[in-house]
Write a structure and sequence with these properties.
This protein has about 140 residues and is of the alpha/beta class. The protein has helices spanning about 15-30, 55-70, 85-95, 120-125, and strands at about 5-10, 30-40, 75-80, 100-105, 130-135. Helix content is about 40%, strand content about 20%. Belongs to the universal stress protein A family.
Amino acid sequence: MFKTVLFPIDQSREAREAADLVTKVVQQFTSRLVLLSVVEEPAPEAPAGDPMVSPEAVAKLLENAQALFSQQGITAEVIERQGKPAFTICDVADEIGADLIIMGCRGLGLTEEGSTDSVTNRVINLSPCPVLIVP
């Protein structure tokens, strides 16, 4: 049913908590798991070397997530992209033919358009496949 599962991750607590459900779904359906980390272009006023967006921090995040799933017997592919998170998540889902996107309910932030629109809401509205949100 879910041949390919996309799991967008960031350094949020919600993403870490969603990992348990991702493990269960991938094991139950023997799915291909793709981990995605999206790095936004830093705003001009952002401090240089922000650890949340450094290439090293993203590489470490993906490496740790891959190791976590490996301990559960799951081989996870990793993709790192730069861009607007919601649009990039949906683009990657389309590119890899994802059957399901699983993500935490909040992640690290709201979109630049304001507090009423989150990355999660945007993904739900733009996704080419079902989206499972983990509260």
